[in-house]
């Protein structure tokens, strides 16, 4: 079973969804949709993994798409829940881990109405305990491993991240 | 002549938080009245002019220059005739109070609140307010800027959204650069009544990752199991990093 993985933008989104009845999602705060589903061109960026055993892959791709190494929470949504309702593009992802660029996907043609589907998929994932916190130290360990295997293109990182990566490489 | 009508919509739809949207309408637009009616019929509407007046009244009692600051801030928004949409960072409204004793500090605080209002703090990304504070530190020195931030923090201690924004900012500077004010602020917030603020105060120490903070963290005790577990994890990580 495959999963689409995304970073949770606000920890309050998870708390709100966890405490809300699934059949009453229409009345949940709009903050969740505005914070978590910031689509561009009606597309939402996600990272695809075949199973939860590959979650570190998505974590690495996401960590290396940012401007610095920092803890975050991921949500893993069953891909079937999304594929049944949206078209999916195999678009290259923005990450400096070269072999993970291709695990990126775009959920396409998102409309105001179909945000309900995404919200419901988020709620299901949270109820199924599919939110995972990655601590800074944990991410650094994963990144260190990737650096050892020359999977990270440091030259493409911004100054701050590049500095952090160079320091990690030395440890 | 165009007369500005300031409206603010506050919807308390759910127990977990709410969103505030501020609209600035111009009466010369014929559709304005219809739009106003639609909004009034669907949401609870709070008039910004009322809250601005009460804010001015309360600050005027404390400092006469504060009224000027608040009024000019509101006026500057009016003048731009823009639609401002601000989402809450946490479970609280975003109305920082600004009381500034001198021009540089006043300008710093006004700019900071302007940036923070529009900020979406995302893990792994550098915020505009953080860059602004960094530049200010280069210009005025760490100690001066941290004193200004400390004053801003004291004035906004009852506003979780502001406090979380501040913690997010200062915890991304090196511990050495923000001490002693930074850790003192975080320490003060470890016992804040807002769970999110307490959680973020712990995260600040996690971000600084400095052994000097172990003394504080090891002497914390939370009844809340999740928070205590988080503290223990941070202690472990700092000790064995």
Shape of chain B: globular
Q: What's the overall average pLDDT of chain B, rounded?
A: 71
Strand order of the largest sheet of chain B: 3-1-2-4
Distance between the termini of chain A: 37 Å
Q: What oligomeric assembly is this protein in?
A: heterodimer
**Strand segment count of chain A:** 6
Portion of residues within helices of chain A = 25-40%
Number of distinct helices of chain B:
12
H/E element sequence of chain A: EHHEHEHEEHEHH
Structural class of chain B: alpha+beta
Q: What is the H/E order of chain B?
A: EEHEHHEHHHHHHHHH
Structural class by secondary-structure content of chain A: alpha+beta
What does this structure look like?
The complex is a heterodimer of chains A (171) and B (241). The longest helix of chain A is centred in the C-terminal third of the chain and has 13 residues, at 115-127. A six-stranded antiparallel beta sheet of chain A has the order 4-5-2-1-3-6. Chain A is α+β, with helices and mostly antiparallel strands and 171 residues long. Chain A has helices spanning 11-18, 31-36, 55-63, 79-83, 115-127, 136-148, 159-170; strands spanning 3-7, 44-49, 72-78, 88-89, 104-107, 131-134. Chain B has a four-stranded antiparallel beta sheet. Chain B has helices spanning 32-42, 48-62, 64-80, 103-117, 128-140, 142-155, 160-170, 175-178, 181-189, 195-208, 214-217, 225-240; strands at residues 4-14, 17-26, 45-46, 84-86. In chain B, a hairpin with a 2-residue loop joins strand 1 and strand 2. With 241 residues, chain B is an alpha+beta fold. Chain B is globular and about 55 Å long. Classes of the chains: A alpha+beta (171), B alpha+beta (241). Chain A binds chain B through residues 7, 9, 11-12, 15-16, 19-20, 27-31, 34-35, 62-63, 65-72, 135-137, 160, and chain B through 13-14, 16-19, 87-88, 90-91, 120, 122-126, 172, 196, 199, 203, 206-207, 209, 233, 237, 241.
């Amino acid at each position: 079973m495959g999963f689409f993985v995304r970073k949770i933008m606000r920890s309050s989104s998870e708390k709100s969804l966890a405490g809300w009845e699934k059949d009453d999602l229409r009345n949940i705060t709009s903050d969740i949709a505005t914070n978590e589903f910031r689509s561009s061109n009606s597309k939402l960026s996600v990272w695809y993994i075949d199973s939860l055993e590959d979650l570190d892959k998505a974590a690495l791709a996401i960590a290396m798409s940012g401007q610095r190494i920092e803890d975050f929470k991921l949500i893993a949504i069953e891909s079937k829940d999304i594929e049944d309702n949206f078209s999916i593009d195999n678009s290259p992802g923005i990450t400096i881990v070269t072999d993970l660029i291709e695990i990126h996907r775009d959920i396409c043609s998102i409309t105001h109405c179909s945000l309900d589907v995404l919200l419901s998929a988020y709620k299901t994932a949270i109820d199924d305990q599919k939110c995972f916190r990655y601590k800074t130290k944990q991410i650094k360990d994963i990144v260190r491993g990737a650096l050892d295997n020359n999977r990270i293109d440091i030259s493409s990182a911004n100054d701050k991240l590049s500095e952090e990566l160079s320091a990690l490489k030395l440890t | 002549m165009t007369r500005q009508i300031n409206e603010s919509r506050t919807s308390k739809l759910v127990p977990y938080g709410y969103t505030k949207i501020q609209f600035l309408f111009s009466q010369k637009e014929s559709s304005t009245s219809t739009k106003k009616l639609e909004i009034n019929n669907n949401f609870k509407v709070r008039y910004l002019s009322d809250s601005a007046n009460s804010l001015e009244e309360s600050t005027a009692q404390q400092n006469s220059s504060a009224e000027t600051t608040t009024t000019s801030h509101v006026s500057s928004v009016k003048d731009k005739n823009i639609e401002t949409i601000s989402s809450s960072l946490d479970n609280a409204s975003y109305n920082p109070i600004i009381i500034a004793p001198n021009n540089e500090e006043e300008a710093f605080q006004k700019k900071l609140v302007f940036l923070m209002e529009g900020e979406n703090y995302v893990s792994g990304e550098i915020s505009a307010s953080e860059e602004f504070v960094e530049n200010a530190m280069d210009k005025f020195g760490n100690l001066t800027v941290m004193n200004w931030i400390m004053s801003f923090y004291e004035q906004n201690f009852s506003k979780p959204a502001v406090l979380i924004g501040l913690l997010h900012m200062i915890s991304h500077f090196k511990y050495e650069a923000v001490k002693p004010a930074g850790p003192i602020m975080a320490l003060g917030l470890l016992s804040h009544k807002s769970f999110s603020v307490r959680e973020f105060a712990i995260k600040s120490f996690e971000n600084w990752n400095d052994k000097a903070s172990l003394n504080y963290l090891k002497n914390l005790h939370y009844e809340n199991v999740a928070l205590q577990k988080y503290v223990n994890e941070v202690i472990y990580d700092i000790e064995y990093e």
